[in-house]
Specification:
Order of helices and strands: EHEHEHEHEHEHHHE
Number of domains: 1
Helix content: 40-55%
Shape: globular
Bound molecules: nicotinamide-adenine-dinucleotide
Radius of gyration: 17 Å
Strand content: 15-25%
CATH class: Alpha Beta
CATH architecture: 3-Layer(aba) Sandwich
Length: about 250
């Protein structure tokens, strides 16, 4: 098993890629701290992991709430004394276009950037205690290339890529590797929200979009989880400061 005796914390692990990674990391021997704002989804992920013979605990936290994030870090310190894997997976598409309200800006920025940044800071000492830690950030192909419909999202996800490099440099000497994953279109419960349209229109736009992906299909959450597992494990022991596109060739064009 690739993550035996490791403690792994994954945000937004109640759905999609976070849930897929939580299940895979647990299967590979990690104790997974499942963090999500949705209580039912959190409990479901934990129940699925336990039913499969894995080890997990659920923590219902809104990443916009910095006090709750600090309390979570304190709890991890008290219960585990170290953290080996931090997967900052939480993210939302947010509002489209450039003509945004301050509320729309704040909501997405707090979820896509601020919460994960502060949580990482609160957990840095615990990551250093691991001696062999891996931090993984969810970016997006929208952070690598321009996104005419979602400039704010593109800005957030491009910011993640810059942060991955800087955080990797800041923590390299402490045995903490920091990397990102830039997923292309992935079939998760959150995907329809990216198209910001009716169900019928979303289906049409999705089909048209998928036709432009060189591999001719969207990704499955498990295909992001396997890359996250690689980055979390010793298989990536000399990999730090990079963001890997996992996009069926989309950004190779
Ligand atoms: N799905 C895609 O095509 C795609 C493509 C590129 C990047 N991404 C990125 O990958 C990551 C995972 O996306 P997904 O599609 O698997 O997600 P998803 O929409 O399936 O799940 C999101 C989860 O985040 C939780 N969440 C939302 N707001 C929260 C908050 N304030 N605090 C805590 N939890 C909160 C939700 O309850 C939900 O369980 C995100 O960062 C997303 O931006 C997704």
């Amino acid at each position: 098993m690739l993550l035996e005796n490791r403690i792994a914390l994954i945000t937004a692990a109640g759905s999609g890629m976070g849930q897929a990674a939580a299940k895979l990391f647990a299967k590979e021997g990690a104790h997974v701290i499942v963090v999500d704002v949705n209580e039912d989804a959190t409990n479901q992920t934990v129940a699925d992991i336990k039913a499969a013979g894995g080890s997990a605990q659920g923590e219902v936290v809104d990443v916009r709430d910095l006090d709750a994030l600090k309390a979570l870090a304190d709890k991890v310190a008290a219960e585990h004394g170290k953290l080996d894997v931090l997967y900052n997976n939480v993210g939302i598409p947010g509002a489209a276009g450039m003509d945004l309200t301050l509320e729309e800006w704040n909501l997405a920025t707090e979820i896509n950037i601020r919460g994960s940044f502060f949580l990482s800071g609160y957990l840095t000492d615990l990551l250093k205690k691991s001696g062999n830690a891996s931090v993984i950030w969810a970016s997006s192909t929208s952070g690598l290339v321009g996104s005419p419909f979602s400039p704010m999202y593109s800005f957030h996800k491009g910011g993640v890529i810059a942060l991955v490099r800087s955080m990797a440099l800041a923590l390299a000497a402490d045995g903490v590797r920091v990397n990102g994953i830039a997923p292309g279109t992935t079939e998760t419960p959150g995907l329809p929200a990216f198209f910001r349209a009716s169900e019928e229109e979303t289906k049409k736009r999705m089909e048209a979009f998928v036709a432009t992906i060189p591999m001719g299909r969207a990704a499955q959450p498990s295909e992001m989880a396997s890359v996250a597992l690689f980055l979390a494990s010793d298989m990536a022991s000399f990999v730090t400061g990079v963001t890997i596109p996992v996009d069926g060739g989309m950004t190779a064009k």
